[in-house]
Amino acid sequence: MPIDLDDLQARLRAFAAERNWQPFHTPKNLSMALMVEAAELAEIFQWMTPEQSLAARNDTALKEPIADEVADVLLYLLQIADHAGVDLAAAVEKKLRKNALKHPAPPTGL
């Protein structure tokens, strides 16, 4: 199911407004919260081997905690972009182009 980023950002704004959280939702605070959530995601995988981390997608006990932390990271990232005035679609497209120039694919047939 595709995600409508504008709708999601509006829902996040409304959620924060209903709780009077706007004074705390600054890019600084949101970026710090993002780091906490990213660390919680990393904690799930911390002591796994690379193979175990790949197999985690099939572990019913890990699927929900991983999904929760991934969602938290995305939600904070969306809020940062919203508060910082970043057009996510444009920023992603531009960054993909930059990455392609910085890291070109190796020639085929070598």
Report the mean per-residue pLDDT as an integer. 96
- Radius of gyration (CA) equals 18 Å
What is the β-strand count?
0
For the record, give the distance between the C-alpha atoms at the N and C termini, rounded to a whole number. Answer: 39 Å
Approximate strand percentage: under 5%
Poorly predicted runs are: none
| Topology pattern, helix = H, strand = E | HHHHH
Please describe the biggest sheet, giving its number of strands, its sense, and whether it closes into a barrel.
Answer: none
Approximate shape: globular
Bin the helical content. over 70%
Helical element count? 5
Assign the structural class, choosing from mainly alpha, mainly beta, alpha/beta, alpha+beta, or little secondary structure.
mainly alpha
